[in-house]
Amino acid sequence: MAISWGVKSFPFTICVHILGVVAAVLVLVWNIHFRGGLAWTSPNKDLIFNVHPVLIVVGFILVSSEAILVYKSIPRSKEYKKLVHLSLQGVALVVAIVAILAAFKFHNENGIDNLYSLHSWLGLTTVILFALQWLIGFVAFWYPGAVENTRSALKPWHIFFGLLTYGLTIATAKLGIQEKLTFLQINSVIGRYSLEALIANSLGLTLVLLGAFVFLAAVVSSR
Amino acid sequence: MAISWGVKSFPFTICVHILGVVAAVLVLVWNIHFRGGLAWTSPNKDLIFNVHPVLIVVGFILVSSEAILVYKSIPRSKEYKKLVHLSLQGVALVVAIVAILAAFKFHNENGIDNLYSLHSWLGLTTVILFALQWLIGFVAFWYPGAVENTRSALKPWHIFFGLLTYGLTIATAKLGIQEKLTFLQINSVIGRYSLEALIANSLGLTLVLLGAFVFLAAVVSSR
């Protein structure tokens, strides 16, 4: 049965771009204004941690969102879209790995245990899935490229696991926001209804909305 | 373009049933064995809280998962499937509301603030979406039922928002697990790598896997 949605993807891609800017502003305001800024090396170890959420939101989630939308938002040849898609997803993957290294660096320099939280378990699962998905996609659809039959068979699975991994990325980010806020609130560094908590929670909801529009844009037909 | 997945939904529905049992066992062991059990009224307020995760996992997520699968797992008439689907989703909704009341009851009797965490924000958003989705579904597809054109136009949106809400349910549950564990670990009630933490994190990952199989069963064709 052919499904008719009655709408095209264009308005949803616009919503994704706008929500992406909102999410970037929220994560930057949170980590630079409220949490003191970013640094890779610093006696103030918290600044090293702050690199993690900023890179995850701006360099991983937003880049990956746009990479998914390439098939709906750019009126160019299929090969061109593919190249932009795999390049953007490649950038997102590298940024995610650097962001994870920042979290480990913060833990190690502060003597905090690694990989005990659900956030870390799910994050590691997600980035491994993402890397596998990228590798299999590269080999099957770009170079050397599988035969046509294999491509057709793989395509729905590539889309399904891609969207699943993308959903996990957003779910993991929300776990991270909640973890960070709980640490701050339980030590009474910030109030439960403080402006900072509202901003961080709003970032969480913005990412959920962004994800919903990416899914919508991905499933309806282009323009 | 017709998509060929090369598989049918049957094996995925079996995985959902099995993972559902695993998730139920994990949440019960966690809350009864490790957290002391369940009670609606008790001087030990923690027992009131424990009602919340148990009802959410066993009565909301698992029932809702099976409700989604009805269209793939029962070889009966369309009307029959619809009735089972809307009844199960109705049960899930009522259980979710009772589970949320348990969390408020625990907060109020313990003098804890309500609705400050990302878990609570997302949870409230999710249950409101779920209730709207149920109501619109009931009116459009059951009684009085919309005209055929409207039904066809609504159907993809019902499926999309249904799966989105379902994904949010699982994401919210993971936020709850992480919040509870962070509270316990930061007060050193349990260790970061304790058996209890491993069980609760495993519950989180089991719910993610369960969700992935529900999505797969929902998108591929039946049997």
Topology:
2 copies of one chain form a homodimer.
Chain A (H helix, E strand, L loop, with lengths): L9 H25 L10 H29 L4 H33 L7 H25 L5 H39 L8 H25 L4
Q: What tags apply to this protein structure?
A:
homodimer, 223 residues, mainly alpha
- SSE order of chain A, as H and E? HHHHHH
Structural class of chain A: mainly alpha
Overall 3D geometry of chain A? globular
Number of strands of chain A: 0
Q: Please describe the biggest sheet of chain A, giving its number of strands, its sense, and whether it closes into a barrel.
A: none
As an assembly, this protein is homodimer
Integer average pLDDT of chain A:
95
Major interchain interface with per-chain residue totals: A-B, 45 and 45 residues
pLDDT < 50 stretches of chain A? none
* Share in helix of chain A: over 70%
Number of helices of chain A: 6
Alpha carbon gyration radius of chain A:
19 Å
Could you tell me the strand content of chain A as a percent range? Answer: under 5%
Terminal Cα separation of chain A, in Å? 21 Å
